[in-house]
Amino acid sequence: MESQQILKLDIREDGVAIIEIHRPEARNALNLALRQALSETFRQLNHDASVRAIVLTGGEKVFAAGADIKDFATASTAQMYLRHTEQYWQSIIDCTKPIIAAVNGYALGGGCELAMHADMIIAGRSAQFGQPEVKLGLMPGAGGTQRLLRAIGKFQTMLLVLTGKFIGAEEAKQMGLVSEVVEDANTIEHAVELAKTIAGFSPIAVQQIKEVTNLGQDMSLQAALSLERKAFQILFDTKDQKEGVNAFFEKRPARYQGE
Ligand code: DAK
């Protein structure tokens, strides 16, 4: 792995990129430098055609314990506004490649919000999710109320954001916040395996699936179904679609070129 100070990046030959948050002394708290590094890394990976799927992890022990609380100690409203940290999250939102969060340990506050920017969340049994901002006289500010609402519904969201309570991996899965629960030792490996599978598919089909699924959440059903249909039709103009169908009939693995 190429080691940067607070973020490690590994771009593998199989099309999988692994981003690892590395601030163990602060439970991977997301200070401004880390958020900026995450933003730049996602932008870089989005433009790198060799990257087909991204795994985002905090390593074996902790995903991220939220924003760095030190950044809040004396900040005024104007200073918080002028930081415009929403720009840092935007490059993750704009990433067209599938993102799989591999979560061990705490994913709290901004850490839980970061995990929810992913398209799938693989949780180790030790994972703990929560939005404890209310305990600091704050509230979630990077999508916590809204992404939870869409993932787990109003009543479970209110329970988490109004009490700050932590929930374990199994409970989070039952609520719909987690895709799969695995043993801690397997979290990253399993996420990478999933990413590798996805990286083997047509990147155009994969990216269309991601885009339509995400956009559809906030559209009327009729409009979303129409968007889905158009995206489906567009795929018929790709070489990858012909390759996929031909490979099926020729009983061989498809070789997708992203064209
Ligand atoms: N920030 C800074 N330092 C943190 C931290 C955090 N979020 N979490 C842990 N640390 C530091 C601790 O201060 C401690 O440092 P030292 O005392 O060793 O110097 C070290 O990490 C180890 O922490 P603990 O000793 O507490 O470790 P434990 O294993 O006992 O407990 C814990 C781990 C994660 C349960 C506990 O540290 C904890 O409750 N941490 C705070 C969790 C939290 O409240 N998170 C929410 C933060 S608010 C925004 C968008 C998003 C946000 C804000 C704005 N905009 C768009 C503007 C997000 C806000 C948040 O996330």
TrEMBL record:
<dbReference type="Pfam" id="PF00378">
    <property type="entry name" value="ECH_1"/>
</dbReference>
<keyword id="KW-0456">Lyase</keyword>
<dbReference type="GO" id="GO:0016836">
    <property type="term" value="F:hydro-lyase activity"/>
</dbReference>
<dbReference type="InterPro" id="IPR018376">
    <property type="entry name" value="Enoyl-CoA_hyd/isom_CS"/>
</dbReference>
<protein>
    <submittedName>
        <fullName>Enoyl-CoA hydratase</fullName>
    </submittedName>
</protein>
<dbReference type="InterPro" id="IPR029045">
    <property type="entry name" value="ClpP/crotonase-like_dom_sf"/>
</dbReference>
<dbReference type="InterPro" id="IPR014748">
    <property type="entry name" value="Enoyl-CoA_hydra_C"/>
</dbReference>
<comment type="similarity">
    <text>Belongs to the enoyl-CoA hydratase/isomerase family.</text>
</comment>
<dbReference type="GO" id="GO:0006635">
    <property type="term" value="P:fatty acid beta-oxidation"/>
</dbReference>
<dbReference type="InterPro" id="IPR001753">
    <property type="entry name" value="Enoyl-CoA_hydra/iso"/>
</dbReference>
